[in-house]
From TrEMBL:
Keywords: Signal
InterPro entries per record: Bact_solute-bd_prot1 (IPR050490), SBP (IPR006059)
UniProt feature, compositional bias: Polar residues: 28-46
Keyword Nucleotide-binding: no
Residues annotated as signal peptide: 1-28
PROSITE patterns: PROKAR_LIPOPROTEIN
UniProt cross-references to Pfam families, sorted A to Z: SBP_bac_1
PANTHER family per UniProt: ARABINOSE-BINDING PROTEIN-RELATED (PTHR43649), DIACETYLCHITOBIOSE BINDING PROTEIN DASA (PTHR43649:SF12)
Span list, region Disordered: 26-46
Superkingdom field: Bacteria
Name by which UniProt lists this protein: ABC transporter substrate-binding protein
Length: 548
């Protein structure tokens, strides 16, 4: 393991040096000069929207992401025709990391990269391949209006500059994780109490007995929903602490493996696994396999970090044949004795989900930023979420939210939701607060059978059961550093130990695997990793408090 990590470290370092050489010395601290900005002679006019005609390439750095052709739906077609913006997607082909490395080594970066915050961004910053956006943030109105100062400060790289454009940032609360039940099965079994983990166990046993062809508890792709249960064993906690490998104790992080709540969780999960109440290939199953089960009513209960997407799609599939079928969101399952209002399924960060960065390959980075600023403003959000004016809305209310027209009200909810989801795939600067407020205003005007499943789930449960974990962002070390290598080794040890705990044949085996993991992670340097993350966490706390 050590030799492999050293080789990876050398490769990453080589890539950074190569990028720096290609950039002419890594001049990453300044925005492009005037001559660079004017290379694209096509950018000459401003139509009053704040954006100018521009064409740029776009790469989504995710294995699962396939960006549909630009102009193939009503929203992007409207943008192309009315705002003169064209996007040329570059596909990952299911191998995003390899594709990006190929583009880096070949000196053929796209104009825009859509990716996670963290090491993939910072390596490009250090190599001088990204455009600093500070001047643009000052110049254009929408990000300045909607993004909190503390959020922007948390986007700054070590050189003090901002290179990232946030997506689905917020100034409020949001979350999409949670629990749902199959309505048909739940109703047929008499709708027993489903509040505590004891309730859940009894219900899953009943499902197993009455519905042998149904998965009692579905836990998502590669078992992603399993660790979501952690928040149900301890107040004011989320599975974010597991990914950090540490939970807060005062002003420092302690090993998650020493947390009694974590031990309770893995013992409970193992019990469900041993009794076949969850899928036996839970840790290996694909997203397609999960969706197939959900969409064909072969799931009784599900827990997942993106329950609103699974639930909305599954609900559409089941209600297409029977309006009374489908799924129902429920309050998070929790340990008996906990305050249910302090139980959280997921965590949210005011920075949102991921980011876009503009590379120095772009001929007119300012025009690209201006488009993203337009996206995140009221007009862009309406077009890329609800569709262009004239489709599902013709007028706005006093707050700028679209008022549903007759087509919105008469189009079947399943059909309308599927159409709108195609627009949302291109909303790369999602403004969560604006959209959530607009959705709630719009949904309030609809009858119960016209409301979307996703919006109801969010407004009644998933937003309320998401914890603000913004203070823990940017706590991952760069992979080609000593702490980064420690993080990788600790992660590898944990992944193996976690699988052993889930699949153990007894409680004793679970506890034995847990003890071994404690010893091995300590040997691998977990204490150093937690010291690093504690320092980053406390720096974030200072930045956030400084702007309150």
């Amino acid at each position: 393991m050590g030799n492999r990590m050293k080789w990876v470290s050398l490769l990453l370092t080589s890539l950074v040096l190569l990028l720096a050489a290609c950039s002419g010395g890594g001049n990453s601290n300044t925005s492009p000069n005037t001559s660079e900005k004017n290379l694209n002679t096509e950018v000459t006019t401003d139509d009053g929207s704040g954006i100018k005609p521009v064409t740029f390439s776009f790469y989504g750095n995710y294995d699962w992401l396939t960006t549909s052709p630009w102009g193939d739906n009503e929203a992007t077609k409207w943008i192309q025709e009315n705002r003169k913006v064209t996007v040329e997607p570059i596909q990952s082909g299911g191998a995003a990391g390899e594709k990006l490395n190929t583009m880096i080594v070949g000196g053929d970066l796209p104009d825009v990269i859509f990716t996670d915050r963290g090491s993939s961004v910072e390596r490009l910053v250090q190599a001088g391949q990204l455009v600093a956006l500070d001047d643009y943030y000052d110049k254009y109105p929408n990000f300045k209006k909607y993004v909190k100062e503390s959020t922007l400060n948390l986007l700054r790289s070590d050189d003090g500059k901002i290179y990232q454009i946030p997506n689905w940032y917020t100034s409020g609360q949001f979350g999409n994780g949670g629990w749902m039940v199959n309505k048909d099965i739940y109703n047929e079994l008499g709708r027993p109490a489903l509040e505590t983990f004891d309730d859940l166990y009894q219900y899953l046993r009943l499902v197993q007995e009455k519905y042998p062809d149904v998965v009692p508890l579905e836990v998502g792709e590669k078992g992603a929903g399993l660790e979501i249960m952690y928040g149900g064993f301890k107040e004011n906690s989320t599975s974010k602490f597991i990914s950090l490998m540490g939970y807060p104790e005062g002003d420092k992080l302690s090993s998650i493996l020493d947390d009694p709540a974590y031990e309770e969780m893995v013992l409970y999960i193992n019990k469900l696994y041993r009794e076949r109440l969850i899928t036996q290939d839970a840790l290996q199953q694909t997203q397609d396999a999960v969706k197939e089960k959900v969409n064909t009513s072969r799931v009784a209960v599900m827990v997942e970090s993106n329950i609103t997407t699974y639930g909305a799609e599954g609900h559409r599939a089941l209600t297409a044949n029977n309006p009374d079928s489908g799924y129902e969101i429920i309050w998070p399952i929790h340990k008996a004795g906990l305050d249910k209002t302090q139980v959280f399924v997921s965590g949210f960060e005011t920075l949102g989900w991921n980011v876009s960065v503009i590379t120095k390959k772009a001929k007119d980075p300012e025009a690209i930023f201006a488009y993203f600023d337009w996206i995140t403003g009221p007009e862009g959000q309406k077009v890329l979420f609800f569709g262009p004016k004239g489709l599902y809305w013709d007028e706005e209310d006093a707050d700028g939210a679209p008022i549903p027209n007759e087509k919105y009200k008469t189009t079947p909810a399943n059909e309308r939701t599927e159409t709108m989801r195609k627009f949302e795939d291109f909303n790369w600067a999602g403004n969560t607060t604006f959209i959530d407020t607009a959705k709630m205003s719009l949904e309030a005007l609809l009858s119960a059978n016209q409301k979307s499943w996703e919006t109801v789930a969010q407004s009644t449960v998933t937003w309320k059961t998401a914890l603000d974990i913004t203070e823990f962002v940017n706590t991952d070390p760069l992979p080609d550093t000593e702490i980064g290598i420690i993080a990788q080794n600790v992660g590898d040890i944990y992944t193996l130990a976690y699988a052993q705990m889930v699949q153990a044949k007894s409680d004793e085996e679970v506890l034995s695997a847990l003890e071994t993991a404690k010893k091995n992670t300590q040997k691998a340097g977990l204490d150093k990793l937690l010291e690093f993350r504690t320092e980053k966490w406390q720096e974030n706390v200072k930045k956030i408090n400084a702007t309150k």
